[in-house]
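Long-time lurker. I teach an intro course on protein structure, and each term I like to show students one example going from raw sequence to a predicted 3D structure in token notation. This year I'd like something fresh instead of my usual example. Would anyone be willing to generate the tokens for the chain below so I can use it in lecture? Attribution to the forum is fine with me.
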Amino acid sequence: MISRIDLRGDALPEGPALRALLPRADFDVAAALEKVRPICEDVHHRGDAALIEYAEKFDGVRLDQVRVPAAALKEALAGLDPLVREALEESIRRARLVHSAQRRAPHTVQVVPGGKVTEKWVPVERVGLYAPGGRSVYPSSVIMNAVPAQEAGVGSMALASPPQADFGGLPHPTILAACALLGIDEVYAVGGAQAVAMFAYGTETCAPANMVTGPGNIWVAAAKRYFTGRIGIDTEAGPTEIAVLADDTADPAHVASDLISQAEHDPLAAAVLVTDSVALADAVAKELEPQVAATKHVEDRILPALKGRQSAIVLVDGLEEGLRVVDAYGAEHLEIQTADAAAVAERVKNAGAIFVGPWAPVSLGDYCAGSNHVLPTGGCACHSSGLSVQSFLRGIHIVDYTREALADVAHHVVTLAEAEDLPAHGAAVKARFGWKVPGQ
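-- Reply from a regular --
Happy to contribute to a lecture. Here you go:
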């Protein structure tokens, strides 16, 4: 059901050579880019009319308008299962606890007497949030995108999610209910690349946004790449992935269930176990069979994911080698199921989020840990972070110098300007002192 990669014995290679040995899904955003380009430009030129046509073409629904009526949001919340509402409210509460602590305060550094630099943090003015609506419904993604933006102080926020034929062309009612709980009243029944284009360019109905965040399929990722530079993005999210670093203290039933939990997202989802225990590897492989047979989404998601080239059990000689492998892999979600798991987790350098020990499964982080589940995929954890309040803030330096403080350093400024052959830079300083710079 799941392949094995044996990296025992010979010394592990370094850098790209090691990464090349590890399983990874095929996810060609560059190829998809050319297919989304005409869609994005069509939205640019035809606005809402193009969005309505693409809803019919891709989602099988004919819309009269793309904006969701306020009444539909209220109805969705009123009709929400009370247990689901309670769970969403608890998820929101915990996410606010964690993300409110991420707020940044301005700070001032007195560089010299009379010269100071202040850094202030300003939220992005308008954000477009995307909530997927393909194989599954993700109200949790609404929470994970909206809460950090709200805690950052973003003043204008809109959300897009694909229209659903089963719900009269509206996004899934649980998505709408989550929006209502969060106070998001600007919602659009738009999916895919066209949703990103709507936020990037704006239409008759939707004002353009400064930034777009939220996970989606390859078309959403390609559209984000297309608009990078015009708008800010969080990340080009690829297929979800879990890596589990485990030794012989791990419970194979736990490990197997966690691998399956990610595999049920998508046939391209990656499930990777890294271990120095052949006994654990054998036990996990054995556990997969009955657990897979007992769950849903087996043929269309779980089996293709577990059997795909992106999933494997990786055998290593020991913990040190295991740490090197998981750092090279840079998993979106990394579970540590080893002896002294907390100490091992401290040594990890590259991961979107780390889950410590047997009682912190990835599923907890998906919903109710308080952490954010919008995380870097495809090895991007070596240079990128998950979504947070900081994602929606811009740092601005405020430079405040007196005449005396500028005079004290003016000769250095002029010297460096001349060294870079930019004499006008120096002249701008000289002009303030009658063309005679103190110290020269």
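Some talking points for your students: The chain is about 45% helix and 15% strand. The two ends are 76 Å apart (CA to CA).
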